[in-house]
Write a structure and sequence with these properties.
homotetramer, N-(1-d-carboxylethyl)-l-norvaline Dehydrogenase, domain 2, eight-stranded mixed sheet
Chain lengths: 298, 298, 298, 298
């Protein structure tokens, strides 16, 4: 099949290579001309604009958008909306908010364009060698593009999940679970670290990956991380986050689902961004007022 | 009435003054001879040992223990156990664990000694001018000492709560609630601090204390604190804790009562004691492994 | 001063009575004609439409909107926006989202209308006899309406908090704190309830209100509640919520402020709305799969 | 090697079979004579008492205790302490509290007996076919029994973790992490369940196990569970717990490690044991008092 790939960053470039390796033709565009050139050398047909990319595609045209979520995705999809026609297909493979995908699908439908929202998990490595893709959109049109997903993912590593938005929603919830699992693992190692015992963390991660209930890819990654830096002495415990964890909590609040673990995982990340907190100052001030407990001066 | 006061720290000394002001006779002992001397000058009869203190008391002897909870309280009460006789009274006014009070009461009963566990809230100021006291112990014997509590506390500021241990248990839970309230207030001010608005916190605390649902002594204390240091610039947000919050959570776990708010209040205090966390390092290392997200080096 | 009151529900009617008692003239409108009539009998000038209400006001016209937050408030303010002129004043006294207030103020300013967002705490009783009001809006124009707030609130029970939106934001955070305080108190009583002791809760609330650190209006209300139903046997523990707690958590997420206590207070409310949870089913199913732990059948 | 197995419940029996399959000789005892007989038929040497079991073992005698943690384990180990001599070995393979293991090891050492605490993860299936074992105890003596662990576990599925107690501590923390992971997964499915989309949960679990970041044995188990009961309609969401999660939180409190996720996982389990809560009643009563919000009657 022929796919137009818009956005050749780490994810888009690796995905293109993955597609070509499975004998799909890729028409590639990026605002960065070097990125286009590099991919041309690896077998893609280059394009210098989205308009040119669309022209080079055969009907039904398939445009895969792999640009940062938010304004840029909005801009690209709006442009595609003008250039594509009935029966053509837009795939948003980025980390868009599911509400945006629902809205964009509705707009695309007005012109008879099929819209698919594809959430991807597995990182760059996954984009290149096979990841896990969660796909929302028109069920009937999906038959047309399913062969792509069969080829580029790990075995059974894709799911048509339902109506437009369901792919990004599922990816969002996946990341919420990921936040919770990561924090659970991290708390566990923190308890080990402060205990009276002297554990070899790499060995701990290894044994947990051999037959225990918590064996998982995340624990495998911890084994790998500890093999490089046995006590993580070199790094700081600052936990950044992208949007999906926050969106999961916001969705949970909208749906009135109690998600204490996912919410706390996110909040402990926020906490790690601060050296000192106003919350702490208020509590310290209160303790000083009623109990005469000394405050620590700056 | 005549009371033997053992332990003349901030709480014990203020309590003694409060007692004497209400025409009770105080026999006072502390390992710190200066403290004894000072109180003698204020009207108390001094003693140089617990043995001497007990000798100076008339039957039924009332010994009020006001020393740090734990080993020291254990030691003093054990000594009193040997010196007192049937019908005498031990009052433990410290912050003892309620299980210890239950145990000590049982032991005292074997000799016919009455044991009272008294939890106090209200700080030094309260000890001097009237606090809130929660009292567990023998119901019938309580009639004998009730006049003391009527005199030294604020109006309605004492409660015979039930069997031995119930006083310290009630005080423990009071402190658990206190932790939760303080953290709730602190989180609120933290949201204000990070908002787009520019609030005058002293004025905020003042208005909240005039007619709002959250009006409380703690908000009054915040008004006082902000009047001295309007943005708490001078202090660090390190939140220490004494034992009662932890005991409340431990009791909740034993009783299988979900107490997320009290538990999290305590855990955020622990979090504030650390500049960096192993939890954070583990999460940062994981994000680096699967997503190539850069870690912050030390 | 003369005030046009739009919305004569519990809050608006009580507020009108309060205003008239302090010698302010009230022009009153509600879609419910009975409500208008009742207030006319108590001294107000009635109006049969917002248009009529505006006509009956003298310059600068002051319209106080006291209708349910959301669509209805939007509709009323839009209508006022068309009817009022430069120098006139709109007061939104409902529980609007602060972002809406910021937006409405900007729109009002285009026509030279002053907009004030007023968050109120204290319930119906407060509306009638004096509450706590947190006010955002144009600082200079505030001087004109300040006498109203001085009259109708408890002493020091109003605060000009800053730019438009700051009043509703402050009220929102107040409610977030309220959620946390309430959950803290409730957890404490739950620990007492499951303990080995047999407490008289009304007496507990009373003693806590006499000299303890947690003395507060909320504990006073608990004393009142327990005086009517000593063990709350008659009611179910279903905890509903209006929007402000949720908005506080959402704002905290946007501002990256960790607010575990406020978030958990809200989530435990959501939890109380369900008899059984899908979360619980998943965990029970997992335990069955790996450990052979029996599940409870429906 | 020759091993004396005390306790032939699900775990002990399966472990014995596993040992014999790897050409180890098993002397087996249980208070249940049927269990002994069954195992004799499968190749073990039976014993009618712990004393007889010990007599039938050759020096250095290895006694593996596989009875319920707590009083029973205490009793059995005390008996073994009397029967064994210098150089003999006690293995506690149950879910004992690590503090008990530290204490028992110290006592065993007084007589020159080696003590090992072995935490096992992997369930019955693991006991039979290879699990994950975390082992604390005397390092030098471990060389003598290591071949057993090499034979009966999955590849790399055992770890000598350190001094006595470190095995059970590690197992405890493992379970704490397990609680957090399970709750995270469950919250995610709950958000899916309440969403506007209509997911096939078995398919969701399957796709997540193919290439996603959260792929893990627990998600595999969810796929299995959903294959049997697609929406878990037949079961109730009651989440029981054994002791390790609670011990992890208690240890975290002792060590002042903030573990919000593990703590909340546990507390949501407790919450699931109750149909109605006193916490909820208190909050509902408060809302009624200050806001006139109707309570739900029983």
């Amino acid at each position: 099949m022929q796919i137009g790939m818009i956005g050749l960053g780490k994810m888009g470039a690796n995905l293109s290579l993955n597609l070509m390796e499975h004998n799909h033709a890729v028409v590639a565009f990026d605002v960065n001309k070097e990125a286009v050139k590099t991919l041309e050398e690896q077998g893609a047909v280059g394009a210098h604009s989205i308009e040119e990319l669309v022209k080079k595609l055969e009907k039904p045209k398939v445009a895969w958008v792999m640009v940062p979520a938010g304004d840029l995705t909005e801009k690209v999809i709006n442009e595609l909306q003008g250039l594509l026609d009935e029966g053509d297909i837009i795939i948003d493979g980025g980390n868009s908010k599911y509400q945006d995908s629902v809205r964009r699908a509705e707009k695309a439908h007005q012109k008879g364009i099929h819209f698919f929202d594809v959430g991807t998990s597995g990182g760059m490595e996954g984009a290149r060698n096979g990841a896990c893709m969660m796909i929302g959109g028109d069920k009937e049109a999906f038959a047309h593009i399913e062969p792509i997903f069969k080829d580029i993912n790990v075995e059974k590593g894709y799911l048509y999940a339902g109506d437009a938005g369901s792919g990004h929603f599922l990816k969002m919830v996946h990341n919420g679970i990921e936040y919770g699992m990561m924090q659970a693992i991290a708390e566990g190692f923190d308890v080990l670290e402060k205990s009276q015992f002297d554990y070899d963390y790499e060995a701990v991660a290894r044994v947990w990956n051999n037959g225990s209930v918590i064996r998982s890819w995340l624990i495998e990654l911890m084994e790998r991380a500890f093999s490089k830096d046995p006590r993580l002495d070199d790094i700081r415990g600052v936990m950044h986050s992208s949007g999906e964890g926050k969106w999961t909590v916001e969705s949970a609040l909208d749906l009135q689902v109690p998600t204490p673990v996912i919410a706390l995982s996110l909040m402990m990340r926020y906490r790690s961004l601060e050296d000192d907190t106003f919350t702490g100052k208020v509590v310290a001030a209160l303790r000083n007022e009623f109990g005469g407990h000394a405050v620590e001066k700056k």
